[in-house]
Amino acid sequence: MAFLPRALPLLLLAVVCIQLSGVLAEEQADRRDRCWCLKSLKKRVPREEIEEFSIFPRRSKCDTVEIILTLKPVNNSTEVVQRCLSPETKQGINLQTCWNNKNTNNTPTFKISNCFESHK
């Protein structure tokens, strides 16, 4: 009987932790579904400045395709600079075509150089 009063707080703590983990998992999934690009570039970014890119399809809480460019470092900088590109621009359409045709492994990011490989 002395064990029960000690076990009850631990049991309650376990229930609270389980409930919180479910809420946190829902919040994480919710964040993934939201739009990441608040503003997108309408201008072309020179291909020489782009290291890689990612394309995210429409999601439950984001009604647009998102293209996120990771730019090459400038002046030996270690800072990672990312920019959103509008999917409606000519460059955005070309990157989506490349992604759909050449990203056969469905990797989350894709090197821009893979889009412009020479055909042998």
From TrEMBL:
Keywords of the record, alphabetical order, are: Cytokine, Signal
SUPFAM superfamilies, per the entry: Interleukin 8-like chemokines
Superkingdom of this protein's organism: Eukaryota
Q: Which GO terms describe its biological process?
A: immune response
InterPro entries, sorted: Chemokine_IL8-like_dom, Interleukin_8-like_sf
Query: Which residue numbers delimit the Chemokine interleukin-8-like domain?
Result: 34-91
Query: What span is annotated as the signal peptide, if there is one?
Result: 1-25
Q: Can you name one GO molecular function term for this protein?
A: chemokine activity
GO CC, sorted alphabetically, is:
extracellular space
Asked whether the keyword Signal is assigned, the reply is yes
Q: What is this protein called?
A: Chemokine interleukin-8-like domain-containing protein
